[in-house]
Amino acid sequence: MERANPSSITILLMEKISAKAVATFEEQGFTVHQAVKYSEDELVEVIKDVHVIGVRSKTKLTPRVLQAAKKLIAIGCFCIGTDQTDLQLAASMGIPVFNAPYANTRSVSELVLALMIMLARQAGDRNNEMHNKTWKKTSKNCFEVRGKTLGVVGYGHVGSQLSILAEALGLNVIFYDIEPKLCLGNASQVKTMDDLLEQSDFVSLHVPADEGTKNLMSKEEIMKMKKGSYLINYARGSVVDVEALAEALKSGHLAGAAVDVFPSEPSGHTNDWSVCLQGCPNTILSPHIGGSTEEAQRSIGVEVANKVINFINKGSTSATVNVPEITITKNLPKGHTRIVSFHDNHPGVLRDINRIISIANIASQRLETSDKIGYLVVDLESDATEAIQAELEGMDSNIRCRILFPGKGYQGPEPKPLE
Known about the structure:
The protein has helices at residues 19-27, 40-46, 63-68, 87-92, 105-120, 123-131, 157-168, 193-199, 219-224, 242-251, 294-314, 349-357, 386-394, and strands at 10-14, 31-35, 52-55, 74-77, 97-98, 149-153, 172-176, 188-189, 202-205, 229-233, 254-259, 283-285, 337-344, 362-369, 373-380, 398-404. The protein is α/β, with parallel strands linked by helices and 419 residues long.
């Protein structure tokens, strides 16, 4: 069986993904196309001939789009979140999804720290006044952040990094998380969300978007915050009830807020976008730029591209978010082949697969499963695998099967399109 020319593998990168990602893919010999924006109808047509798609937060990989992607073998989310992708459907199609959950940690935490100071000094309002020709020098209700209490909701990579930076400025840090976490520096974990809201001068949110965090900060929670405190949301737009937040700002219950993410966001640049927070006092709004630095985008580009390449070339699903994880670092020796197989997870499947591949000596075999899907990686001491692949693809339990060969670039035949 002949190895496909690497240039036959098409990578589509959306939304101005970093040039570092483009270069990383091109070094492998893959063909890279770039686009800024497609409508769903346009994407349904374009994706039919794409093997890998890279997206950021605006391109939605809906069921309709994925069902049209008959050649798609991997998805790269060049960002932290993956809520733009139907993860379960992708998994059922044998399509792993990779992201970069930590690459923009520093960028977000630095900006949040800066916003805390800006809010405490009402610098946003003073800036707007100066642009409108108003000179209003005042110290009323302007404070240092030293000695104040920062409450971090979600003590993951961004939350813990922010904790370290905030302590350096003299803030006391407490945090709430649904799991016990190692406290860094002098930070301490509180038992309940209410404890955090009642004690904090600043509340900063750093949680994912899921059913458990939807409207995490509702009117009831916002009113539990200390009078004169500040709320910062650089997590997800679904986490805060923005109308309740606007009411709390206008009434004076909260002294200020900084919001970077919103329940509804435009798909691109526009001069006609509105939200109820506009015009609220001491409120800093930004267009989802928390992780938008040159450093973060370069780091994300290289990290996600390399994860996708390791899957294409070696079958490694390390750090995927939707299918069983198998980390593979070993290259194939000459004369060997590697079978990578996604299949339904039910009793008897591995027995049937082993019966098919037993015509060759097995050098190594690894299997990981989730509730519905199994992922098998088998190295065979043979390169005559045409019959094996045909039989595996003929199994009722088969989702997606590829055969990899030694060598640089794409190691395998053209992926068989999904039925």
